[in-house]
């Protein structure tokens, strides 16, 4: 059975600083829902740490179908992005980005040292995050005459739906949401309500 919930963090974590032989590793974790959110965050971190030689990161999106990316940003192959991604997996999170800007301290750490440092910075950043369970939502567009408003609202309350958008005129339109696992039940309930058109909104 497909999952309809996932673990992520409630909001962006506090900045952490991990030092290793005078190199500074700053760890950040951000909840994200789309890939296009990544680039502006990384650009912002480059501005925040103009002396950082590398801003390495990893992200993962999705629940039943997962996509992820890792980026070493000029560090030796798999010495930064993959250790960061390993921590995302270890925490069991998805829809998350973890980034670690590094300011070089003058002493080379070697590949082993880098792996350990990026892993630790990512772990500390994720430790700062507040875990939260989120649900995958199914949305429906309801169209009906104003006269049916009471019946529709009663059913919305009964099914514990969220009202995400509304247009209330002589003919009304509501955008309502529920946990994905309840979508069949919601469709069936509104099908029985004469005069209401219930259409699932594409994911």
Automatic annotation (TrEMBL):
Q: Organism, per UniProt?
A: Croceitalea dokdonensis DOKDO 023
Task: Tell me the lineage of the source organism.
Answer: Bacteria, Pseudomonadati, Bacteroidota, Flavobacteriia, Flavobacteriales
Pfam families given in the database record: Impact_N
Among the entry's GO cellular component annotations, what is one?
Answer: cytoplasm
Check the record and name the Gene3D superfamilies matching this protein.
Answer: Impact, N-terminal domain
Q: Which family does it belong to?
A: Belongs to the IMPACT family.
Listed name of the protein: Impact N-terminal domain-containing protein
Task: Give me any GO biological process, just one.
Answer: regulation of translational initiation
Q: Which InterPro entries match?
A: Impact, Impact_N, Impact_N_sf, Ribosomal_Su5_D2-typ_SF
Domain called Impact N-terminal: residue spans? 21-126
The protein's matches in SUPFAM superfamilies, at most eight in alphabetical order, are given as:
Ribosomal protein S5 domain 2-like
């Amino acid at each position: 059975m497909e999952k309809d919930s996932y673990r992520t963090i409630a909001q962006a974590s506090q900045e952490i600083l991990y030092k290793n032989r005078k190199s500074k590793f700053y760890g950040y974790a951000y909840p994200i829902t789309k890939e296009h959110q990544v680039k502006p965050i990384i650009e912002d971190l480059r501005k925040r740490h103009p002396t950082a030689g590398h801003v390495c990161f990893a992200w993962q999106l999705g629940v039943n179908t997962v996509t992820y990316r890792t980026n070493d940003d000029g560090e030796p192959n798999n010495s930064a992005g993959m250790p960061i991604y390993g921590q995302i997996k270890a925490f069991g999170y998805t829809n998350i980005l973890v980034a670690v800007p590094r300011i070089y301290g003058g002493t080379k750490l070697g590949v082993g040292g880098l792996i350990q440092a990026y892993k630790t910075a990512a772990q500390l950043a994720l430790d700062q995050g507040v875990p939260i369970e989120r649900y995958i939502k199914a949305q429906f567009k309801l169209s009906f005459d104003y006269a049916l408003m009471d019946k529709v609202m009663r059913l919305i309350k009964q099914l514990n739906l969220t009202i995400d958008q509304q247009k209330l005129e002589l003919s009304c339109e509501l955008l309502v949401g529920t946990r994905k696992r309840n979508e069949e039940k919601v469709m069936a309930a509104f099908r029985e309500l004469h005069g209401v058109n219930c259409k699932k909104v594409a994911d």
